[in-house]
Design goal:
- This protein is of the alpha/beta class and 304 residues long.
- It has one domain: UDP-N-acetylmuramoyl-L-alanine:D-glutamate ligase (3-Layer(aba) Sandwich), CATH 3.40.1190.20.
- Helices cover 33% and strands 23% of the residues.
- The protein is built from 9 helices and 14 strands.
- Strand 5, helix 2 and strand 6 form a beta-alpha-beta unit.
- The longest helix is centred in the last third of the chain and has 16 residues.
- 48% of the residues are buried.
- The structure holds adenosine-5'-diphosphate and sodium ion.
- The site of sodium ion has 8 residues, from helix 8.
């Protein structure tokens, strides 16, 4: 089984549970607060690891106590942390408010994530092992992400991109991407199609990416599940499981990491999507982000 090499962000998340999100100029009191490890890169790495993949985390931390906590946390999960670079500054941080309905709002500070360079990545010889897949988001400098996409393509290594936060992807890079996973906001931004409108808009968004050269596209649609399209424009709808929503933070991260782990195990696409749907349903039914990601045993039991 090939490795999953996640090149992305690691953060310390400061989570404030509130009755409702503060409006501009408003102050609200938190019901409770928590400090925990996050970042889309780290969350997806942990999700993939817990679903049974071999996972390497590549990215930058600082030289502060929170960075040490995050490093220890990833090691605790069994993620290979030997390629993590330590920068002079402090770890990236996220201030997250979660309201009573489980919806979140997030303010990010890049911190060490923003200091990762192409030179750092060039010094990591094991980054592009054959049969591995690189997993990217958009919380590190774009030149790093672009370097990884182009180099992976040249070395025959698969690339999975979750363009989050959303960005305009240079068209010449799209044919170099094997799997792109986007939520509704990201899909609307990247394709210009308002996907929340209806099924035909979802199909249109996915097919515009496929026709631009992306080999497989997955649109995650929150409680509406997910929409998959391959190069032949074959479609798979996967419903979301009905659960009581506690906290949707990292739903997408859990979906992506667990999907890719199932893929690396050689499961059929339908099964990978169902696995990811179950893993993310469990994650949204529990408080927390990274800490709410289930392991393979729990997902298997949920699917029985
Ligand atoms: P993101 O967290 O990136 O916004 P989504 O909200 O699309 O991503 O969620 C990703 C996946 O998580 C969905 O495709 C679905 O399978 C699952 N999911 C999200 N919200 C729910 C929910 N309320 N109930 C069950 N599953 C959910
Ligand atoms: Na959760």
């Amino acid at each position: 089984m090939g490795n999953i090499i996640t090149v992305g962000s690691m953060n310390m998340d400061f989570v404030y549970y509130v009755r409702s999100h503060p409006l501009p100029g408003e102050t609200v009191h938190s019901v409770r607060t928590e400090t925990k490890s996050g970042g889309k890169g780290a969350n997806q790495a942990v999700a993939a690891k817990l679903s049974g993949a071999n996972v390497t985390m590549v990215g930058a931390l600082g030289k502060d106590p929170y960075s040490e906590d995050v490093l220890a946390g990833l090691r605790g999960y069994g993620v290979d942390t030997s390629s993590i670079v330590l920068k002079k500054g402090t770890i990236g941080t996220a201030f997250i408010t979660v309201d009573e309905s489980g919806q979140n709002s997030i303010v990010l500070n890049g911190g060490a994530n923003a200091l990762l360079t192409v030179q750092d990545l060039e010094c990591l010889p094991s980054l592009f092992e054959p049969s591995s897949v690189v997993l990217l988001q958009n919380e590190i400098p774009w030149d790093c992400t672009q370097y990884v996409i182009e180099t992976a393509y040249r070395r025959g290594v698969s690339v999975c991109l979750n363009p989050a936060p959303a960005l305009t992807i240079p068209p010449h890079l799209l044919p170099l991407i094997d799997i792109m996973v986007l939520n509704e906001t990201e899909a609307a931004w990247v394709t210009g199609v308002k996907v929340e409108h209806d099924e035909s808009a979802v199909r249109q968004a996915a097919s515009s990416l496929i026709r631009s050269g992306v080999k497989e596209v997955i649109l995650t649609l929150g409680a509406k599940g997910s929409f998959y399209m391959n190069e032949r424009e074959e479609v798979i709808h996967t419903p979301a499981f009905k659960v009581n929503v506690e906290d949707t933070t990292a739903a997408g991260d859990t979906f992506i990491g667990s999907f890719l782990a199932a893929r690396q195990k050689g499961l059929r696409t339908e099964s990978c999507l169902r696995w990811a749907s179950a893993a993310s349903a469990i994650a949204v039914s529990r408080a927390g982000a990274q800490s709410s990601i289930p392991d393979a045993e729990e997902v298997a039991a949920f699917l029985k």
